Amino acid sequence: MPYVKFDAPTDANKTSPQGFLSYMEKEDREKGIDKEFWFSEREDYIPAYRIVEDIENQKGLTKNKDFRYYTGSISFSQEELAFIKNDVKKLKAFGKKFISVYAENFNKGLSAKDVRFYLKLESDRYYKGTDSEVVSGKVKSGDKKPGNNLHFHFVTGRKSTGDKHKLSPLTAHVNTTSGAVIGGFSRDRLKERTETLFDSMYSYNRPLEQTYRYMNNMSPGKDMNKRMYSIKQATDKEQSQLKYNYLSRFEKQKKLTVLMNYMQHGQRDNYEGSILIDNKQILDEAQKRNFNGDVYKALLNMNYRLKNGFQPNQDLTPFVIEYARFVGAPYGKLPDTLKKDRFMRFGQIINNKLPDGKKLDLDKLFRVEQQNQLNGKIYRALGEFNKHLVTKESKGDANETVIALSKEKQVKNSNTQKENQETQSSSTVKTLSELRNEISIGDINNGNSSSAYKEELKPKKKKRKYNGPKL
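Above: the chain's sequence. Below: its structure in C-alpha coordinate form.
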Protein backbone atom coordinates (compact mmCIF):
# COMPACT_ATOMS: atom_id res chain seq x y z
CA MET A 1 0.00 0.00 0.00
CA PRO A 2 1.14 3.64 -0.35
CA TYR A 3 2.63 4.17 3.10
CA VAL A 4 2.17 7.67 4.58
CA LYS A 5 4.60 8.51 7.38
CA PHE A 6 4.81 11.73 9.41
CA ASP A 7 8.19 12.55 10.95
CA ALA A 8 8.37 13.28 14.67
CA PRO A 9 8.85 17.07 14.93
CA THR A 10 11.83 18.60 16.73
CA ASP A 11 12.74 22.14 17.80
CA ALA A 12 13.80 22.77 14.19
CA ASN A 13 10.11 22.57 13.22
CA LYS A 14 9.49 25.69 15.33
CA THR A 15 11.69 27.82 13.10
CA SER A 16 12.44 27.90 9.37
CA PRO A 17 12.24 24.83 7.08
CA GLN A 18 15.42 25.96 5.29
CA GLY A 19 17.55 23.15 6.73
CA PHE A 20 15.04 20.44 5.79
CA LEU A 21 14.68 21.75 2.22
CA SER A 22 18.45 21.92 1.75
CA TYR A 23 18.80 18.31 2.89
CA MET A 24 16.01 17.21 0.53
CA GLU A 25 17.88 18.70 -2.42
CA LYS A 26 20.88 16.37 -2.01
CA GLU A 27 19.88 14.44 -5.15
CA ASP A 28 19.65 17.66 -7.15
CA ARG A 29 23.39 18.20 -6.93
CA GLU A 30 23.93 14.88 -8.71
CA LYS A 31 21.18 15.26 -11.30
CA GLY A 32 21.92 18.83 -12.37
CA ILE A 33 19.34 20.05 -14.87
CA ASP A 34 17.39 16.79 -14.48
CA LYS A 35 16.61 17.52 -10.84
CA GLU A 36 13.12 17.18 -9.41
CA PHE A 37 11.39 20.37 -8.30
CA TRP A 38 8.95 20.77 -5.47
CA PHE A 39 5.32 20.88 -6.59
CA SER A 40 1.85 21.51 -5.20
CA GLU A 41 -1.68 20.88 -6.37
CA ARG A 42 -1.51 23.94 -8.66
CA GLU A 43 2.18 24.31 -9.61
CA ASP A 44 4.89 21.96 -10.91
CA TYR A 45 8.18 23.87 -10.56
CA ILE A 46 8.44 25.53 -7.17
CA PRO A 47 11.88 26.72 -5.97
CA ALA A 48 12.77 26.08 -2.33
CA TYR A 49 13.01 29.76 -1.39
CA ARG A 50 9.27 30.27 -2.08
CA ILE A 51 8.39 27.43 0.29
CA VAL A 52 10.63 28.95 2.96
CA GLU A 53 8.89 32.31 2.59
CA ASP A 54 5.41 30.73 2.73
CA ILE A 55 6.18 28.77 5.90
CA GLU A 56 8.00 31.61 7.66
CA ASN A 57 5.24 34.12 6.93
CA GLN A 58 2.44 32.19 8.66
CA LYS A 59 0.48 34.38 11.10
CA GLY A 60 -0.87 33.53 14.53
CA LEU A 61 1.91 31.18 15.72
CA THR A 62 3.89 31.70 18.91
CA LYS A 63 7.61 32.06 18.18
CA ASN A 64 9.78 29.15 19.42
CA LYS A 65 6.70 27.47 20.89
CA ASP A 66 4.37 26.40 18.09
CA PHE A 67 5.52 24.06 15.35
CA ARG A 68 5.55 25.98 12.05
CA TYR A 69 5.66 22.96 9.75
CA TYR A 70 5.53 19.16 9.59
CA THR A 71 7.38 16.78 7.31
CA GLY A 72 6.85 13.25 6.11
CA SER A 73 7.02 10.81 3.21
CA ILE A 74 4.86 8.61 0.98
CA SER A 75 6.38 5.28 -0.06
CA PHE A 76 5.15 2.64 -2.51
CA SER A 77 5.52 -1.12 -2.71
CA GLN A 78 7.59 -2.71 -5.45
CA GLU A 79 4.40 -4.18 -6.89
CA GLU A 80 2.61 -0.83 -7.01
CA LEU A 81 5.54 0.78 -8.80
CA ALA A 82 5.75 -2.13 -11.22
CA PHE A 83 2.01 -1.92 -11.88
CA ILE A 84 2.26 1.70 -13.05
CA LYS A 85 5.59 0.89 -14.75
CA ASN A 86 7.50 3.43 -12.63
CA ASP A 87 5.69 6.21 -14.47
CA VAL A 88 6.82 9.48 -12.86
CA LYS A 89 3.91 11.43 -14.38
CA LYS A 90 1.42 9.03 -12.80
CA LEU A 91 3.14 9.32 -9.44
CA LYS A 92 3.01 13.12 -9.55
CA ALA A 93 -0.66 13.04 -10.55
CA PHE A 94 -1.25 10.83 -7.52
CA GLY A 95 0.71 13.26 -5.32
CA LYS A 96 -1.48 16.18 -6.38
CA LYS A 97 -4.67 14.25 -5.64
CA PHE A 98 -3.25 13.23 -2.27
CA ILE A 99 -3.19 16.89 -1.16
CA SER A 100 -6.99 16.99 -1.44
CA VAL A 101 -7.29 13.78 0.59
CA TYR A 102 -4.97 15.27 3.23
CA ALA A 103 -6.99 18.51 3.47
CA GLU A 104 -10.37 16.73 3.67
CA ASN A 105 -9.07 14.47 6.44
CA PHE A 106 -9.13 17.40 8.93
CA ASN A 107 -12.95 17.38 8.79
CA LYS A 108 -13.06 21.16 8.57
CA GLY A 109 -14.44 21.45 5.07
CA LEU A 110 -10.99 22.16 3.61
CA SER A 111 -9.75 21.46 0.08
CA ALA A 112 -6.29 21.35 -1.52
CA LYS A 113 -6.20 25.15 -2.03
CA ASP A 114 -6.68 25.65 1.74
CA VAL A 115 -3.47 23.91 2.87
CA ARG A 116 0.22 24.73 2.51
CA PHE A 117 1.46 21.42 1.12
CA TYR A 118 4.52 20.75 -1.07
CA LEU A 119 5.89 17.47 -2.41
CA LYS A 120 9.17 16.38 -3.97
CA LEU A 121 9.79 13.08 -5.80
CA GLU A 122 12.99 11.22 -4.97
CA SER A 123 14.41 8.11 -6.62
CA ASP A 124 17.02 7.08 -4.04
CA ARG A 125 17.04 6.03 -0.41
CA TYR A 126 20.07 5.99 1.84
CA TYR A 127 21.15 3.80 4.74
CA LYS A 128 21.03 5.34 8.20
CA GLY A 129 23.32 4.56 11.10
CA THR A 130 20.55 2.66 12.87
CA ASP A 131 19.88 0.27 9.95
CA SER A 132 20.84 -3.34 10.63
CA GLU A 133 23.05 -3.44 7.52
CA VAL A 134 25.08 -0.51 8.85
CA VAL A 135 25.27 -1.94 12.38
CA SER A 136 26.52 -5.28 11.01
CA GLY A 137 29.14 -3.53 8.87
CA LYS A 138 27.80 -4.68 5.51
CA VAL A 139 27.29 -1.10 4.28
CA LYS A 140 28.14 2.42 5.38
CA SER A 141 25.77 5.09 6.60
CA GLY A 142 24.84 7.27 3.63
CA ASP A 143 25.19 4.52 1.00
CA LYS A 144 22.34 4.19 -1.49
CA LYS A 145 19.87 1.39 -0.97
CA PRO A 146 19.39 -1.04 -3.90
CA GLY A 147 16.16 -1.53 -5.82
CA ASN A 148 13.40 0.77 -7.02
CA ASN A 149 12.94 3.43 -4.34
CA LEU A 150 10.71 6.09 -5.90
CA HIS A 151 8.98 7.99 -3.10
CA PHE A 152 7.74 11.43 -2.04
CA HIS A 153 8.90 13.73 0.71
CA PHE A 154 6.59 16.51 1.74
CA VAL A 155 6.46 19.60 3.93
CA THR A 156 3.19 21.14 5.13
CA GLY A 157 2.51 24.34 7.04
CA ARG A 158 0.87 24.52 10.44
CA LYS A 159 -1.63 27.19 9.36
CA SER A 160 -4.09 26.97 6.49
CA THR A 161 -3.80 29.43 3.63
CA GLY A 162 -5.23 32.71 4.90
CA ASP A 163 -4.03 31.70 8.40
CA LYS A 164 -7.56 30.87 9.58
CA HIS A 165 -7.03 27.31 10.92
CA LYS A 166 -4.27 25.61 12.89
CA LEU A 167 -3.67 22.22 11.32
CA SER A 168 -1.75 19.39 12.94
CA PRO A 169 -1.59 15.91 11.33
CA LEU A 170 -0.18 14.62 14.64
CA THR A 171 -3.13 15.67 16.80
CA ALA A 172 -4.71 13.09 19.09
CA HIS A 173 -8.19 14.42 18.28
CA VAL A 174 -10.25 12.43 15.79
CA ASN A 175 -13.48 13.88 14.35
CA THR A 176 -14.41 15.89 17.48
CA THR A 177 -17.47 18.15 17.40
CA SER A 178 -16.82 20.33 20.46
CA GLY A 179 -13.98 21.66 22.60
CA ALA A 180 -10.74 23.44 21.70
CA VAL A 181 -10.18 21.33 18.58
CA ILE A 182 -13.02 20.84 16.10
CA GLY A 183 -12.57 18.12 13.49
CA GLY A 184 -9.28 16.44 14.31
CA PHE A 185 -7.18 14.14 12.12
CA SER A 186 -7.25 10.34 11.85
CA ARG A 187 -3.95 9.02 10.49
CA ASP A 188 -5.45 5.53 10.11
CA ARG A 189 -8.26 6.93 7.99
CA LEU A 190 -5.76 8.93 5.91
CA LYS A 191 -3.79 5.78 5.14
CA GLU A 192 -6.93 3.93 4.06
CA ARG A 193 -8.05 6.87 1.91
CA THR A 194 -4.61 7.09 0.33
CA GLU A 195 -4.76 3.40 -0.52
CA THR A 196 -8.24 3.84 -2.04
CA LEU A 197 -7.01 6.83 -4.06
CA PHE A 198 -4.20 4.82 -5.67
CA ASP A 199 -6.48 1.86 -6.42
CA SER A 200 -9.20 4.00 -7.98
CA MET A 201 -6.83 6.15 -10.02
CA TYR A 202 -5.02 3.21 -11.64
CA SER A 203 -7.65 0.42 -11.45
CA TYR A 204 -5.37 -1.50 -9.12
CA ASN A 205 -6.91 -4.73 -7.77
CA ARG A 206 -5.14 -4.80 -4.42
CA PRO A 207 -4.53 -8.19 -2.76
CA LEU A 208 -6.14 -8.36 0.68
CA GLU A 209 -2.82 -8.99 2.44
CA GLN A 210 -1.53 -5.67 1.04
CA THR A 211 -4.35 -3.56 2.48
CA TYR A 212 -3.61 -1.26 5.39
CA ARG A 213 -6.53 -2.53 7.48
CA TYR A 214 -5.47 -6.17 7.11
CA MET A 215 -1.82 -5.51 7.97
CA ASN A 216 -2.78 -3.25 10.85
CA ASN A 217 -5.25 -5.74 12.33
CA MET A 218 -2.82 -8.64 11.98
CA SER A 219 0.10 -6.83 13.60
CA PRO A 220 1.34 -8.24 16.96
CA GLY A 221 -0.58 -7.06 20.01
CA LYS A 222 -3.82 -6.31 18.17
CA ASP A 223 -7.20 -7.26 19.64
CA MET A 224 -8.25 -10.82 18.81
CA ASN A 225 -11.58 -9.62 17.40
CA LYS A 226 -9.71 -7.49 14.87
CA ARG A 227 -7.49 -10.42 13.99
CA MET A 228 -10.55 -12.62 13.43
CA TYR A 229 -12.11 -9.91 11.29
CA SER A 230 -9.04 -9.88 9.05
CA ILE A 231 -9.01 -13.67 8.86
CA LYS A 232 -12.66 -13.59 7.80
CA GLN A 233 -11.77 -10.99 5.19
CA ALA A 234 -9.03 -13.28 3.89
CA THR A 235 -11.50 -16.15 3.65
CA ASP A 236 -14.01 -13.97 1.82
CA LYS A 237 -11.24 -12.90 -0.54
CA GLU A 238 -10.43 -16.52 -1.33
CA GLN A 239 -14.09 -17.21 -1.99
CA SER A 240 -14.31 -14.21 -4.30
CA GLN A 241 -11.52 -15.72 -6.38
CA LEU A 242 -13.96 -18.45 -7.31
CA LYS A 243 -15.97 -15.80 -9.15
CA TYR A 244 -13.24 -15.39 -11.77
CA ASN A 245 -15.46 -16.93 -14.43
CA TYR A 246 -18.06 -14.20 -13.92
CA LEU A 247 -15.64 -11.36 -14.69
CA SER A 248 -15.43 -9.60 -18.04
CA ARG A 249 -12.44 -10.28 -20.29
CA PHE A 250 -10.95 -6.91 -19.32
CA GLU A 251 -11.39 -7.62 -15.59
CA LYS A 252 -9.87 -11.11 -16.01
CA GLN A 253 -6.84 -9.65 -17.76
CA LYS A 254 -6.44 -7.08 -14.99
CA LYS A 255 -6.75 -9.78 -12.31
CA LEU A 256 -4.06 -11.88 -13.99
CA THR A 257 -1.77 -8.87 -14.30
CA VAL A 258 -2.16 -7.91 -10.65
CA LEU A 259 -1.47 -11.48 -9.53
CA MET A 260 1.70 -11.71 -11.66
CA ASN A 261 2.93 -8.36 -10.36
CA TYR A 262 2.32 -9.49 -6.80
CA MET A 263 4.21 -12.72 -7.38
CA GLN A 264 7.19 -10.82 -8.80
CA HIS A 265 7.30 -7.88 -6.41
CA GLY A 266 4.84 -8.26 -3.56
CA GLN A 267 6.27 -10.94 -1.26
CA ARG A 268 10.00 -10.40 -1.05
CA ASP A 269 10.21 -11.93 2.42
CA ASN A 270 9.34 -15.40 1.07
CA TYR A 271 12.19 -15.86 -1.41
CA GLU A 272 15.59 -14.60 -2.41
CA GLY A 273 16.52 -13.15 -5.77
CA SER A 274 14.03 -12.20 -8.47
CA ILE A 275 10.98 -13.93 -9.93
CA LEU A 276 10.97 -14.18 -13.72
CA ILE A 277 7.56 -14.26 -15.41
CA ASP A 278 6.83 -13.08 -18.94
CA ASN A 279 3.55 -11.22 -18.34
CA LYS A 280 2.80 -10.83 -22.05
CA GLN A 281 3.33 -14.52 -22.81
CA ILE A 282 1.09 -15.53 -19.91
CA LEU A 283 -1.67 -13.13 -21.02
CA ASP A 284 -1.38 -14.41 -24.60
CA GLU A 285 -1.81 -17.98 -23.33
CA ALA A 286 -4.87 -16.94 -21.30
CA GLN A 287 -6.33 -15.27 -24.37
CA LYS A 288 -5.80 -18.42 -26.45
CA ARG A 289 -7.82 -20.27 -23.82
CA ASN A 290 -10.49 -17.57 -23.92
CA PHE A 291 -9.66 -16.65 -20.30
CA ASN A 292 -11.30 -19.88 -19.11
CA GLY A 293 -9.49 -19.83 -15.76
CA ASP A 294 -6.80 -22.45 -16.42
CA VAL A 295 -3.98 -19.91 -16.50
CA TYR A 296 -5.39 -18.13 -13.45
CA LYS A 297 -5.43 -21.39 -11.47
CA ALA A 298 -1.89 -22.17 -12.64
CA LEU A 299 -0.72 -18.78 -11.33
CA LEU A 300 -2.52 -19.31 -8.02
CA ASN A 301 -0.76 -22.64 -7.69
CA MET A 302 2.64 -21.08 -8.27
CA ASN A 303 1.86 -18.19 -5.93
CA TYR A 304 0.93 -20.72 -3.23
CA ARG A 305 4.28 -22.45 -3.72
CA LEU A 306 6.18 -19.17 -3.45
CA LYS A 307 4.39 -18.32 -0.21
CA ASN A 308 5.42 -21.69 1.20
CA GLY A 309 9.12 -21.23 0.59
CA PHE A 310 9.63 -22.43 -2.99
CA GLN A 311 12.88 -20.95 -4.34
CA PRO A 312 12.70 -20.66 -8.15
CA ASN A 313 15.95 -20.78 -10.11
CA GLN A 314 14.56 -20.21 -13.60
CA ASP A 315 11.87 -18.43 -15.61
CA LEU A 316 8.49 -19.64 -14.32
CA THR A 317 6.60 -18.87 -17.54
CA PRO A 318 6.98 -22.34 -19.18
CA PHE A 319 5.98 -24.09 -15.95
CA VAL A 320 2.83 -21.96 -15.52
CA ILE A 321 1.78 -22.57 -19.14
CA GLU A 322 2.37 -26.33 -18.84
CA TYR A 323 0.46 -26.47 -15.56
CA ALA A 324 -2.48 -24.66 -17.20
CA ARG A 325 -2.80 -27.55 -19.68
CA PHE A 326 -3.39 -30.06 -16.86
CA VAL A 327 -5.37 -28.01 -14.32
CA GLY A 328 -8.39 -30.34 -14.33
CA ALA A 329 -6.51 -33.60 -14.94
CA PRO A 330 -6.41 -36.28 -12.18
CA TYR A 331 -3.07 -37.18 -10.64
CA GLY A 332 -2.69 -40.35 -12.69
CA LYS A 333 -2.92 -38.45 -15.98
CA LEU A 334 -0.41 -35.76 -15.10
CA PRO A 335 3.03 -35.80 -16.75
CA ASP A 336 5.78 -36.81 -14.35
CA THR A 337 7.09 -33.22 -14.28
CA LEU A 338 3.83 -32.05 -12.68
CA LYS A 339 3.12 -34.98 -10.39
CA LYS A 340 5.69 -33.78 -7.90
CA ASP A 341 4.13 -30.32 -7.84
CA ARG A 342 0.63 -31.72 -7.21
CA PHE A 343 2.01 -34.11 -4.59
CA MET A 344 3.93 -31.40 -2.73
CA ARG A 345 1.10 -28.91 -2.76
CA PHE A 346 -1.36 -31.44 -1.36
CA GLY A 347 1.19 -32.37 1.28
CA GLN A 348 1.66 -28.71 2.25
CA ILE A 349 -2.09 -28.32 2.71
CA ILE A 350 -2.07 -31.29 5.09
CA ASN A 351 1.00 -30.01 6.94
CA ASN A 352 -0.80 -26.74 7.64
CA LYS A 353 -3.22 -28.78 9.77
CA LEU A 354 -0.50 -30.58 11.72
CA PRO A 355 1.33 -29.18 14.76
CA ASP A 356 5.07 -28.59 14.71
CA GLY A 357 7.04 -31.76 15.25
CA LYS A 358 4.33 -33.92 13.65
CA LYS A 359 4.44 -32.69 10.09
CA LEU A 360 4.95 -34.91 7.07
CA ASP A 361 8.39 -35.30 5.53
CA LEU A 362 7.19 -34.66 1.98
CA ASP A 363 10.58 -35.24 0.37
CA LYS A 364 10.82 -38.65 2.01
CA LEU A 365 7.28 -39.60 1.00
CA PHE A 366 7.80 -38.48 -2.58
CA ARG A 367 10.93 -40.62 -2.80
CA VAL A 368 8.75 -43.62 -1.90
CA GLU A 369 6.28 -42.47 -4.57
CA GLN A 370 9.12 -42.41 -7.11
CA GLN A 371 10.17 -45.90 -6.08
CA ASN A 372 6.59 -46.94 -6.89
CA GLN A 373 7.00 -45.50 -10.41
CA LEU A 374 4.76 -42.52 -9.50
CA ASN A 375 1.74 -44.83 -9.53
CA GLY A 376 -0.18 -42.68 -7.01
CA LYS A 377 -0.25 -45.08 -4.05
CA ILE A 378 1.34 -42.60 -1.66
CA TYR A 379 -0.65 -39.73 -3.14
CA ARG A 380 -3.92 -41.59 -2.52
CA ALA A 381 -2.71 -42.48 0.96
CA LEU A 382 -2.27 -38.74 1.61
CA GLY A 383 -5.93 -38.37 0.73
CA GLU A 384 -6.89 -41.07 3.23
CA PHE A 385 -4.69 -39.47 5.88
CA ASN A 386 -6.31 -36.07 5.19
CA LYS A 387 -9.80 -37.56 5.66
CA HIS A 388 -8.62 -39.14 8.91
CA LEU A 389 -7.56 -35.71 10.22
CA VAL A 390 -11.07 -34.33 9.81
CA THR A 391 -12.45 -36.51 12.60
CA LYS A 392 -9.41 -37.56 14.60
CA GLU A 393 -6.11 -36.14 15.75
CA SER A 394 -3.00 -37.67 14.19
CA LYS A 395 -1.23 -40.02 16.56
CA GLY A 396 2.19 -41.55 16.11
CA ASP A 397 4.52 -40.81 13.22
CA ALA A 398 2.60 -39.19 10.34
CA ASN A 399 4.98 -40.49 7.67
CA GLU A 400 4.70 -44.10 8.85
CA THR A 401 0.92 -43.71 8.99
CA VAL A 402 0.77 -42.56 5.36
CA ILE A 403 3.02 -45.41 4.19
CA ALA A 404 0.90 -47.91 6.14
CA LEU A 405 -2.25 -46.47 4.60
CA SER A 406 -0.76 -46.88 1.13
CA LYS A 407 -0.24 -50.60 1.79
CA GLU A 408 -3.62 -50.99 3.46
CA LYS A 409 -5.23 -49.25 0.53
CA GLN A 410 -3.52 -51.65 -1.86
CA VAL A 411 -4.71 -54.74 0.07
CA LYS A 412 -8.17 -53.26 0.43
CA ASN A 413 -8.40 -52.58 -3.28
CA SER A 414 -7.21 -56.12 -4.06
CA ASN A 415 -9.73 -57.68 -1.67
CA THR A 416 -12.50 -55.47 -2.94
CA GLN A 417 -11.73 -56.45 -6.51
CA LYS A 418 -11.83 -60.17 -5.57
CA GLU A 419 -15.06 -59.72 -3.63
CA ASN A 420 -16.64 -57.90 -6.56
CA GLN A 421 -15.67 -60.73 -8.90
CA GLU A 422 -17.15 -63.35 -6.55
CA THR A 423 -20.31 -61.30 -6.07
CA GLN A 424 -20.69 -60.80 -9.78
CA SER A 425 -20.20 -64.55 -10.43
CA SER A 426 -22.66 -65.67 -7.74
CA SER A 427 -25.14 -63.08 -8.90
CA THR A 428 -25.02 -64.50 -12.42
CA VAL A 429 -25.57 -68.09 -11.24
CA LYS A 430 -28.41 -67.04 -8.98
CA THR A 431 -30.10 -65.22 -11.77
CA LEU A 432 -30.00 -68.27 -14.07
CA SER A 433 -31.29 -70.48 -11.25
CA GLU A 434 -34.13 -68.10 -10.56
CA LEU A 435 -34.95 -68.01 -14.25
CA ARG A 436 -35.20 -71.82 -14.39
CA ASN A 437 -37.46 -71.88 -11.34
CA GLU A 438 -39.69 -69.22 -12.81
CA ILE A 439 -39.98 -71.20 -16.06
CA SER A 440 -40.78 -74.47 -14.23
CA ILE A 441 -43.35 -72.87 -11.97
CA GLY A 442 -44.94 -71.17 -14.94
CA ASP A 443 -45.25 -74.44 -16.80
CA ILE A 444 -46.89 -76.17 -13.85
CA ASN A 445 -49.34 -73.40 -13.13
CA ASN A 446 -50.41 -73.12 -16.75
CA GLY A 447 -50.55 -76.85 -17.36
CA ASN A 448 -48.13 -76.47 -20.23
CA SER A 449 -45.21 -78.60 -21.13
CA SER A 450 -41.83 -77.14 -21.57
CA SER A 451 -42.21 -77.49 -25.32
CA ALA A 452 -45.53 -75.73 -25.18
CA TYR A 453 -43.87 -72.89 -23.23
CA LYS A 454 -41.24 -72.55 -25.90
CA GLU A 455 -43.89 -72.32 -28.54
CA GLU A 456 -45.61 -69.60 -26.58
CA LEU A 457 -42.43 -67.58 -26.71
CA LYS A 458 -42.35 -67.71 -30.53
CA PRO A 459 -43.52 -64.50 -32.17
CA LYS A 460 -47.06 -64.73 -33.46
CA LYS A 461 -47.71 -64.29 -37.16
CA LYS A 462 -49.39 -61.01 -38.03
CA LYS A 463 -52.87 -61.32 -39.52
CA ARG A 464 -53.18 -59.86 -42.98
CA LYS A 465 -55.61 -57.04 -43.22
CA TYR A 466 -58.51 -57.76 -45.62
CA ASN A 467 -58.71 -55.19 -48.39
CA GLY A 468 -61.55 -56.72 -50.37
CA PRO A 469 -61.64 -59.46 -53.04
CA LYS A 470 -58.68 -59.86 -55.26
CA LEU A 471 -59.31 -59.13 -58.88
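Residues 414-459 have pLDDT under 50 and may be disordered.
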